Amino acid sequence: MTDPNLHRIVASLIPQGARVLDLGCGDGALLSYLADHKGCSGYGIEISDENVQACMQRGVNVIQLNLEEGLAMFGDQSFDVVLQIDTLQNLKNAEVVMQETARVGKTGVVAFPNFAHWPNRWSVLWGRMPVTRRLPYQWYDTPNIRVGTHADLLALARRNHLQILENFGVHLGRVVRTLPNWRASTSVVKFTRSPAQL
Amino acid sequence: MLIASPQFMHFDAPLALQSGAELRQYRLAYETYGQLNARKSNAVLVCHALNASHHVAGVYQGQPHSEGWWDAMVGPGKPVNTDEFFVIGVNNLGSCFGSTGPMHDNPDTGRIYGADFPVVTVEDWVNAQARLLDQLGIGQLAAVLGGSLGGMQALSWTLQYPERVRHAVVVASAPNLNAENIAFNEVARRAIVTDPDFHSGNFYAKGVVPKRGLRIARMIGHITYLSDDVMNEKFGRELREGLDLKYSTQEVEFQIESYLRYQGDKFAEYFDANTYLLITRALDYFDPAKACGGDLSQAFQKARARFLLVSFTTDWRFSPQRSREIVKALLDNRREVSYAEIDAPHGHDAFLLTDARYMAVMQGYFQGIQKEFKQEEPNPAQSQEVLSHKGEEPL
Hints:
The structure holds 2 protein chains of 2 kinds. By secondary structure, chain A is an alpha/beta fold.
C-alpha cells in the first residue's frame, strides 16, 4: 500500500517515537514515513521477495514470514503499535492474525477495503461484484479473499473482546466519521486488548 | 576481471586461545579487493566456512580458472560491490591455505605441529581477524559477512567486538550445531582418524596422506549440503554406464556414486586431514548461548550491529528454523534485524550459488549500507569518532 494520504492518516493514530510492527509492510514506504515523520522504529513483515528487497534498499528492517503461521517470534505486548494496513483481506486466518495483533501490540490498527461502501452495494444490487479504484480486481482474480465491511470489522474486534479506541472511514484521502460504513471505501479501526484480558 | 593477490601478515605477539593454550607466533593469509576510503568506513570482512580460504573473489594473474570461492557475491558490480566497498578475505588459523596450520612448524619444538596444533574456536578466529584489522588500521567494519561457519564468525564478531561492527550479514547459519549436525561431523572425523595413513595426525613425516578418510569425510559432507530434490533431479537413479545392472557390490553403478567419489577424490588432493578435524570441531563448539545458560536472547544483549539473516528453505543442515532463532533473540533485544528466507531448491549449497532472489536481497542490503556511509561522508567530525572505536571487549 503506497497511498500517501492513508499513510498520513495512519500516522496520526501513532504516538511519537512508537515501536511499530507493520504486518504486510509492502515496500516499506509506511515504516519509512513513520521513521521520518514520527521518529518511530520497528520492523515490517512481508512474504513477497520483491517487497523484502525493496525494504532492504530503503534501509527498513523487514522480516520475511508468512503471517498465516502467526507471530510466534514476537513476545506479548512487545510493540506499541501493530499495523495491518491492507493486509487483513488477504489472509486465510484473518481472525487468528487479528488476535495475534492484539497479543503482540499494545494497540492495533487495521485498515482494509470497506465492501459496504455505497458504490459497492449499488453494484451488487445490480447483480455484479464491484470493480472500483479501491477494489480493482474481478471476482475471479482478486487477492482479497476476506471481503468484509466496516461494521464487520468492528464486530470481529468485539467478538475477540477488543476495546475499540478509534474507528472511522477513509475516502479519497479524507477521514469519514459520519456513516463510514456507507460513505468510505476504506475502514480503519484502532483497538487494544480490553483491560479484562490484560 | 578482478585480479587477486594473496598477502601475509606475521604476528609475533602470542594469541591466547579459548582453550587456555596459546599460539606464540602465527601468520594470516589474506586478500583485499577495492579501495579503503579516506575515513576507513567502507571495509567489509568476509569469513569463510569449512573448506574455503582468503581467496574470496577474482582470479590470480595468469590463472583464468582460479575464481575465488564467493566470486559470484564479491566483485565490481556484484552484490558486495568492490567499486564501493573495501573487502577483506582472511584465512583462518588451523586451515591449510596459507595461515598458520597443523602442517607448519611449531616454534616451540621446531617440528611440524601435526596433531599438536591447538584446538581453535570461532572466537579465536575472530580475535585473530581483529588483530589483522588493527594492523590494516580499520577500527570499525561497515559489515562482517559469512555463510554457514562463516556466518557463525560474523555472529561472534557482534558479541566479541560489538562496537567494531556496523552490520552483520549471516547467511545459512545457526546459533549452534544440533546433535544431528555434530553427528555428521563425528562420522567424518572418524573416517579420517581411523584411516591407517592418519598416524594419529602425524602423517606428514611418513610421507603419506589419509586420503581414504578425507574422501569419505567429503562424501558425507557433500550429501548434507544438497537437498533430496536436487540430488534426485541431478542424478536420480541414473546408471553410470548403459541401462543394464552390473550386479557388482563394489564397482560404481549409479551416477550419484560416481559424483561422490569424484568429489571425494578431488577434496583429498588438496585438503589437510588435521585441518578437517580442527574446523569441524570449531563448528561443534560454537555456542554463544552456553555462557548464558542456553539463553540466546541474553547472549545477544551485547550485540550492537544491524543484522541481516538469510536462510534457504531446502537447507536441512542449517535450516531456516535455526536462523529464526537468531532473529528472535535479536528481536527480544530490540536490535535492528532483517531476515530473508529464500525459496531455493539447492539445500545448504544455495549460499554459494546465484539464485536471483538471494542475489537481489544481498545487493539490496549492501546498497542500503552504502547509502549509509555515503550520507555520512560530508561530516568530518563524525569520522574522528568512528576511527576512535578500537576498544576490544574481552570474551
